[in-house]
Design goal:
about 400 residues, alpha/beta, Rossmann fold, Dehydroquinate synthase-like, alpha domain, six-stranded parallel β-sheet, two-stranded antiparallel sheet, 14 helices, 10 strands, about 50% helix, globular
Length: about 400
């Protein structure tokens, strides 16, 4: 008999389809916050009126704006933002932007809760993952304030309680976590994504596809996450293709946003991911490949590698994406090609001399060790990298 546990995450609501500034004002007023600190994408701050919309909606409740978070959430940027939020007396964080900004808010909340004022202090709290997959997470104090997230991409980090933060001195992306790092509210407004570059919106959509695919294919997939991930793939397949055909199609954009949300149900309840995620983390932190692109170049090859051990699960992926009976690796590769996204490591700036280091560091990522087909050392990862080269 099937047994399991589903744990509901500490998230209060996901509000979708409404103008983000209007929904944000309501949520801030309901929270009773008086010193809201906004972390925003630098591009959105410079080139759009979206930050001004937040400013107008919140009035004197807005205590500060920080718009200097680099790609892959550098720890120096995170700590600088935390120090600014502390100085502003922040009692609520709001994010407006993509995955790096979302992770930054989680890390700001973490830093405030643990009195981190210098980047080097984060060494005391990072997860330690050995080459055999053993994870040691140092004890941490809970964040003292929560976050409202307004995502503008589809990478869907706003639905998890962990964050990736890059030590740029060592070129390594590290993991930090606490249940209350998860945003308490997420506001999905397709209009907020209209300024997102097409490549970024579509590639982070493939990142969401990756979440759903590796959830369905996990030996530890749960019934609730299987259903959510299956429907996520339907929404993402339809939504991403719709946005590619007509960038102004708000219904297609909302389909993609809802699909990204549903792709994370498994992550929220602890369903582990596989090698596409594991290698992807290292490609991001070490080779500076955008997260969406890491899924574009790795997911089809990981599916081919895993197919001997989970062909029945992969059949669900093909069915959800509208091509029942076709190999899932080919279906996913076809979706990526149809969106005009890169499919090779060499096309996203990875150099041949980086491959051995990427393979070695990947063994220190937890998702490598939960891949459906066992990966017992860097040479196997190197084979996957060579296939994707």
């Amino acid at each position: 008999m099937l047994t399991g546990v589903y744990r509901f995450p500490p998230m209060e609501s996901v509000i979708y389809g409404r103008p983000f500034a209007e929904a944000l004002k309501e949520q801030v007023e309901e929270s009773g916050a008086n010193s809201v600190f906004l972390l925003a994408s630098g591009t959105l701050n410079r080139e759009t009126d979206m930050v001004e919309q937040v400013r107008n909606a919140l009035g004197n409740r807005l205590a500060g704006v920080y718009a200097k978070i680099g790609a892959h959430t550098p720890r120096v940027d995170v700590v600088a933002a935390a120090n600014a939020a502390r100085a502003a007396g922040a009692d609520l964080l709001v994010t407006l932007g993509g995955g790096s900004v979302t992770d930054a808010a989680k890390m700001v909340a973490f830093c405030l809760g643990n009195d981190v004022t210098d980047p080097a202090r984060l060494d005391d709290y990072r997860a330690q993952i050995s080459a055999d997959g053993k994870i040691v997470r140092p004890p941490v104090k809970p964040p003292t304030i929560r976050t409202i997230a307004i995502p503008t991409t589809l990478s869907a980090g706003e639905y998890t309680a962990s964050a990736g933060c890059t030590d740029t001195a060592r070129n390594v992306k590290e993991s930090y976590g606490h249940p209350l790092m998860m945003p308490k509210n997420v506001l999905l407004d397709p209009r907020a994504t209209l300024h997102t570059p097409e490549w970024l919106f579509l590639s982070t959509g493939i990142r969401a596809v990756d979440h759903a695919v590796e959830d369905i294919c996990s030996p530890q997939c749960q019934p609730i996450s299987e259903g959510a991930s299956y429907h996520a793939l339907k929404l993402l397949g339809r939504g991403l293709s719709g946005v590619k055909a007509d960038p102004l199609d708000l219904d297609a954009r909302l389909d993609a946003q809802l699909g990204a949300w549903m792709s994370m149900v498994g992550s929220q309840t602890g369903v582990p991911k596989g090698a596409s995620h594991g290698i992807g983390h290292v490609l991001g932190g070490t080779a500076h490949v955008p997260h969406g692109y890491t899924s574009c170049v790795m997911l089809p090859h990981v599916l081919r590698f895993n197919e001997p051990v989970n062909a029945d699960r992969q059949a669900l992926v093909s069915d959800a994406l509208g091509r029942p009976g076709a190999p899932a690796s080919d279906v996913v590769a076809g979706l990526i090609a149809g969106l005009g996204l890169p499919a090779r490591l060499r096309d996203v700036g990875v150099k041949p001399e980086q491959l051995d280091r990427i393979a070695e560091l990947s063994m220190h990522d937890r998702w490598i060790h939960t891949n459906p087909r066992k990966i017992d050392g860097p040479p196997v990862v190197r084979e996957l990298l060579d296939a994707a080269w």
